[in-house]
Amino acid sequence: MSDRHDSSEELKRQFHLEYGQPGEVAVRLLGVALGSGLLYAYTGWTSAWAWSFFFLVAHATYYWFLKSRRARATQRDEVIASLIFILLLISFLWMPAIMICAEDRALSICGSALIGCILVYLVRRSDTAPIVVYGEVAVLATVISAVFVTLIPQFSDPFAKLGLLVCGSALLYYFVAAARMSRKLRIEAAEANLRLLQSEKMAAIGRLAGGVAHDFNNNLTAILGHLELATLIEDPDERVAAINEASFAARQAARTVKQLLAFARKDRMTLAPQDGADVLQGLVALTKRLIPTSVSIKVEAGHENQKFLADRAQLLSALINLVVNAADAMPRGGELKISSNVVWLDEEQVLADGSRIGIGSYVRISVEDSGDGIPAHILPNVLEPFFTTKPVGKGTGLGLSMAFGVSKQFGGGLTIASSKAGTTISVFLPTA
Questions:
Q1: Alpha helix segments (H runs only) across 233-311
Q2: pLDDT tens for each residue of 384-413
Q3: Which of 101, 87, 110, 97 is nearest to 35 (CA)?
Q4: Cβ 19 vs Cβ 81: under 8 Å
């Protein structure tokens, strides 16, 4: 399942990068179409129309494949998407290569500019999949080699030939170096994000430990008490009943250990079907010891089908942080409301960071407190890592940013609504 998640994330990244800005996409496609028209008008080449035709067909194929496979992609789909992108790259590059080799100076300059545009674009993509990176380098090396093999014989001066060879080699070398550095930075950023999530999970375990210790003491007392009782009583039925009670307490303790280990593990995030009502039940069980007695808890789990895909441990870790923050926001007591339901968004939903999620069906999990709300002047900063208004030692400032990052990784997002009557933080997750 983790491989499927990784492939889906990569296809989602490619789709967002390629088609996430409709205005830019329109400019790109219209630019090639208009360029074909101008090129035909200037040169009379019928191949100018073939350029735009093949480019648009390649784009349509790439768009359809990414859109249809990004939610349930496999490694095979990732390879196919990478190969389609390489073909898309070829469909664009062949005409600028021909233009550079033309004797007309205007064509040479325009072709060189188009090659420069594609080099900058590829560095910006910062691809990490080896098949894509090697494919990009191979295609560009072939194009650059073909251009210079065509151009060099046109010059008789050996220094001119040497200069062309050096310039072509330098262009390819610096593109490869820039692509490698961009790839390295993106991989390091992804690894840093994983370390941040793991750090916040361990912090959540630390907060849970105090409440869990009470449960362990109860379980150990029950186990030892009933085992001691079993050695003292003579009635066989009562002895079996005492042993059964001890066994039940032991299983309770084992379940607690299992929950803690689920949070502590350092596996890659694994998507699996979840149910909103079931997640709420687990959340209440894990946080009941963290909420002071002055705070009352109200749970509202909708009765409709609330299926979505998520990593349960990561999601619960994020929600625990939201519950703890909500309880901390009510030092004088109040009501903590935790709810889940299915909502349909008729228009794009603006998230806490200003980004948006699209129209569609989502499971909404909300944590609402009746505190004094978040002051307006600090509301824009609450998603920043390490930003906190709590005293030293009482908070890391990572909980809300971690919850937001997790919700985004699951294809959804997080919203914050705050007033003097309290704060509601809602996590939106696409229905499965």
A1: 236-264, 276-287
A2: 655 666 654 455 556 777 788 888 888 899
A3: 110
A4: no
Phi and psi of 372, rounded to 5°? Answer: -85, 0
* Model pLDDT, residue 428: 94
Query: Rounded distance, CA 259 to CA 262, Å?
Result: 5
* Cα–Cα nearest to 19, from 54, 77, 64, 52: 64
Tell me phi and psi for residue 416, to 5 degrees.
-130, 125
- Using the CB atoms, write b or e for 117-127: b if 16+ within 10 Å: ebbeebbebbb
Locus of tokens 């600090």: 378
CA 278 to chain centre: 23
What's this model's pTM, rounded to 2 decimal places?
0.51
Phi, psi of 374 (to 5 degrees): -95, 125
List, as one string, the DSSP characters of 218-246.
HHHHHHHHHHHHHHH---HHHHHHHHHHH
Cβ neighbors of 366 (< 8 A, separation 6 or more) are 337, 338, 339, 340, 424, 425, 426, 427
pLDDT band at residue 255 using 50, 70 and 90 as cut-offs: low
The answer to whether residue 215 scores a pLDDT higher than 80 is no
The type of residue at 2 is: S
First CA to last CA distance, the chain: 15
Could you tell me the CA-to-CA distances from 14 to 46, 59, 122 in Å, in that order?
Answer: 32, 13, 12
How far is 411 from 113, CA to CA, in rounded Å? 37
Q: DSSP assignment of 362-429, as one string? A: EEEEEEEE-SS---TTTGGGTTSTT---SPTTS--S-HHHHHHHHHHHTT-EEEEEEETTEEEEEEEE
> For 360-376, how does the pLDDT look when each residue is reduced to its tens digit (9 = 90+)?
889 999 999 998 888 88
